[in-house]
Amino acid sequence: MKPHNITYKSVLFLFVILILTLFIWKTPDAELIYSDQKGYLNLHDSVKYVGMHICKECHFDIYKTYLRTGMGMSFDTANKTKSAAVIGTDSVLFDPFRNLHYKPSWNFDTLRIEEYRLSGGDKLHAREEKVDYIIGSGQHTNSHIFLSGRYAYQTPFTFYTQDSLFDFPPGFKDGHNSRFSRKIGLECMSCHNGFPDFVLGSENKYSHIPDGIDCERCHGPGEVHVNFKKSGFIIDTAIYIDFSIVNPAKLNPKLQIDICARCHLQGTMILKPGKSFYDFKPGMLLTEVMDIFMPLFEGGKEDFIMASHLERLVQSTCYIESGGQFSCSNCHNPHISRLETNREIYNKFCLDCHDAGRDYCSVPKDDIILNNNDCVLCHMRESGSRDIPHVKIHDHKISKPPTEEQLNEDKVFKGMVSINNPYTDSLTIARGYLLEYESYHPDHNYLDSAASYLNLVNIPDSNYYFNAVINLYFLKKDHRNIISLVEQKGVKETLESQLTTKDYSNYDAWTSYRIGQAYESINNNLIANYFYENAIELAKYNLEFQNKYGSLLVKMGKFNKAKQTFEFIISEDPDYTSAYVNLGFVWMNLKDINGAKECFETAINLDPDHIQGLVNLAGLYMLEMNNAKAKELLDRVFAIDPENTMARNILAQLR
After folding, report:
1. Residues whose CB falls within 8 Å of the CB of residue 582, separated by 6 or more in sequence, listed in order
2. Please, which pLDDT band fits residue 356 given cuts at 50, 70 and 90?
3. Where is pLDDT greater, at 356 or 543?
4. Residue 383 φ then ψ, to 5°
5. For labelling alongside 37, which of 93, 297, 315, 627 has CA 20 to 30 A away?
């Protein structure tokens, strides 16, 4: 058994805990312990999460009502109790762009989704996946996640509760169906769920996934609090603050609203240097961990995204004139479902400032009475969101209804703005533009804006600056400037001093990967190999990096090493289609035709439109003199890519 390494810092922290514990025990004035709210003991990095099942032992009534809230129903294993979906014989989606059908069904208590392609009533292709998790409370949607190995992906169907229909998830329609390959990364999982055990060096691998947003997402880790209570240390919370756990009601409004903003201010999230999506805890300022960007527009009809509650709220005159005293909890009790909350509670908060007896409202009195004095009806109008179809939500910008003139104004893009931090630095803004380009809007104006802000950065030796510049050149496909920048620093210096950090976002690994691609583009495979090896050293479980590295090994004729790489990918993720295609090509070079054919067939069973898999398998059939089968596969290629050179060469040989 290895000895535990006790550091000076951990001894000091334990000593402080002991002193504070004795202090709390001996004095009734617990508020004297700390004068500011950042003195909560459970904010320390060493404090562990205990899980909601521990919280319910003392707070069972709150636990019961919380489980009926949207957060309480946010995430769970796929089962009939959790699912809001109504599945019938007609619950079939069709993607006309890819000629693929999708049909969900229950097999006892197991939810499955079948993808298939028809021709004349016959199935030309069929693939079925077991759904492992349902994401979403069911108040608006249920989306679905499956695991391939321990890698989490979204399935291509969502149930939209308000309209009671199946449709594709956001971003899957109009020719953008990514089928079973959309990764569910830590950013997504950490908002829609409790904190998972995410595997460092991956994009979407988990060793454990919890079953929903728990108490500690709003109260912070509970270990200190539980230990205090079990030891008999009790604070009269009617009089004093219990600093062993964060009670959001005891925080100032800014810190309260930042707890909600962590997940109800969705946008382009730029983490601060050294931070991850694990690092924000209740009682902290959100700006300590991340800046969240949204595109700012002026004029025209206003719209908003589903989880933009704070972005809209802070534009309200009510919020602005409150002097920072307005928070989400003024209207919402996070322990009670909004469906179980009397509408009058929301209106009462309005009328506390806008006395019903005074002439605040321009609507005729009779209409006000007819609408039961419902302020929300007019001033927080319900509408759809621009990012998720088939949903209706309240606009949290409290405002008067727009005039026809306002609706008809031209909409003008003003730039990317950090909603939670008006004092964002130039490097962070540049990173915001780059991520917005990659994630949402591939408009080259965003890259130009990123370049302009990078020119204002006065810390060019920063790793984050280097990574941002490399990313900018990569997105512009400017490999020459990537190589020039690396040559200025020196390849050895870049690898040994610049790109060395392992973190949950894989910043240095991605930069190394991008540099590798730049060198490979000029056929400098030796240097490219160094950078790919560095990328997988930093992020072993990023299978995209592994696949690219294996492909380079094939180019370099290192077939046995390439084989090991592709076999590793498949052992990690049995549905990773490109790895089967590449492994099949390796088997061809190693003269194992049966092994090659098996890999290519597996690949096109997973993806019937994988061009390289189809071409390679057609080539094998041609070698076996099975020209009819080869021609059938080539026809499938030409249906996707009529000008495909490799397929045309094989067809010419067949003729």
Report:
1. 547, 550, 551, 554, 562, 566
2. low
3. 543
4. -155, 180
5. 315
Q: In what order do the strands lie in the sheet with 93-95?
A: 93-95, 100-107, 110-119, 122-130
Pair type for strands 382-383 and 110-119: unpaired
Where are the alpha helices (H) located in 286-374, listed in sequence order?
309-313, 317-321, 343-353, 365-370
- For the chain, give every domain's residue range: 73-208, 251-415, 421-654
Reading the block at residue 130, the tokens are 């077991």
CATH code, residues 421-654: 1.25.40.10
Find tokens 């805890």 and name the residue.
Answer: 281
Q: How far apart are CA 489 and CA 477, in angstroms?
A: 20
- Position of tokens 């390439």? 562
Convert the pLDDT of each residue in 9-55 to its tens digit. Answer: 444 444 445 444 444 433 333 333 333 445 899 999 999 999 999 99
Phi, psi of 292 (to 5 degrees): -115, 120
Structure tokens at 631: 């021609």
Give the H or E element holding residue 650: helix 645-654
Q: Could you read off the pLDDT of 185-204 as tens digits, one per residue? A: 999 999 999 999 999 999 99
| Cα–Cα distance for residue pair 244/15, rounded to 1 Å | 15
C-beta of residue 148 within 8 angstroms of C-beta of residue 181: no
Helix axes 525-538, 507-521, angle to 10 degrees: 160
